[in-house]
């Protein structure tokens, strides 16, 4: 199973504050309702290719998922997990269990949209306490209930290109992904902030092992998992709509980060 990204949750202590940051950066998230069983609520930034960023915040003091990220948010903690769509959560759980991967689930998820539509799905979280491996989802109701049409058609941003995953052990993480998903040998690169980088050709993930700085601090605080999301974009067009800063190149592609989102969101050239 190739891990194609369905969506990436972004954690915040307050949903309105997170939405305001995205709006200031030129995006327009749409409120999607509360998860009554999980103790969270969300807004979605749906991208033209159907992937999306789920902006999520707690509605009670003991949310079921990502409490460490909510506690760390000031007010934004950035990406707190990443999700892969599968035809059957139950079948994918069995497949990864056969590869000695810890599984939490399947779990029935639901939320009611502001228009009253009930959205339901199954999900399972892979790999234990960290979020280096994704969680998986399959829809019980039509996917368009969960993921409405994007309002970004015509935008220079087209979808999620890479989720950047931080790890203490790059070699071990590469081997783990290769074993679980039968991925090829990765390309290698280096960045002063993210450290050693590994990217599997044609895949949606970049692994990094930072030596110091903010990415290292985040890894020490929250453990292995996503640290940034890079959206596919025509960068020359995107800089006219979104505040982009920095200038770097990874694996021969231009990378810029969105100002005001603390390095958690960026764009990468098509």
TrEMBL record:
Top-level lineage group: Archaea
VOC domain residues: 1-58
InterPro entries reported for this sequence: Glyas_Bleomycin-R_OHBP_Dase (IPR029068), Glyoxalase-like_dom (IPR025870), VOC_core (IPR037523)
PROSITE patterns: VOC
PANTHER family: BLL2707 PROTEIN (PTHR40265), GLYOXALASE-LIKE DOMAIN-CONTAINING PROTEIN (PTHR40265:SF1)
Protein name (database record): Glyoxalase domain protein
Organism in which the protein naturally occurs: Halobacterium hubeiense
């Amino acid at each position: 199973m190739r891990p194609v990204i369905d969506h990436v949750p972004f954690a915040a202590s307050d949903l309105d504050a997170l939405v305001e940051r995205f709006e200031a950066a030129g995006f327009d998230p749409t409120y999607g309702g509360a998860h009554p069983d999980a103790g969270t609520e969300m807004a979605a930034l749906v991208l033209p290719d159907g992937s999306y960023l789920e902006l999520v915040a707690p509605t009670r003091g003991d949310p079921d998922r990502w409490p460490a990220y909510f506690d760390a948010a000031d007010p934004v903690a950035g990406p707190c997990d990443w999700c892969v769509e599968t035809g059957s959560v139950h079948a994918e759980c069995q497949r990864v269990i056969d590869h000695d991967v810890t599984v939490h689930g399947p779990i029935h998820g639901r939320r009611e949209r502001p228009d009253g539509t009930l959205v339901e799905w199954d999900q399972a979280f892979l790999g234990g306490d960290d979020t280096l491996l994704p969680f998986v989802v399959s829809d019980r109701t039509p996917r368009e209930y969960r993921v409405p049409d994007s309002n970004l058609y015509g935008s220079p941003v087209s979808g999620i290109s890479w989720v950047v995953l931080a790890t203490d052990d790059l070699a071990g993480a590469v081997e783990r992904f290769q074993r679980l998903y039968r991925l090829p040998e990765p390309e290698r690169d280096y960045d002063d902030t993210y450290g050693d980088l590994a990217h599997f050709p044609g895949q949606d993930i970049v692994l990094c092992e930072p030596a110091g700085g903010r990415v290292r601090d985040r890894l020490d605080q929250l453990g292995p998992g996503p640290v940034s999301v890079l959206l596919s974009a025509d960068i020359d067009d995107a800089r006219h709509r979104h505040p982009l800063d920095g200038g770097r190149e990874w694996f021969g592609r231009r990378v810029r980060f969105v100002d005001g989102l603390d390095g958690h969101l960026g764009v990468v050239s098509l």
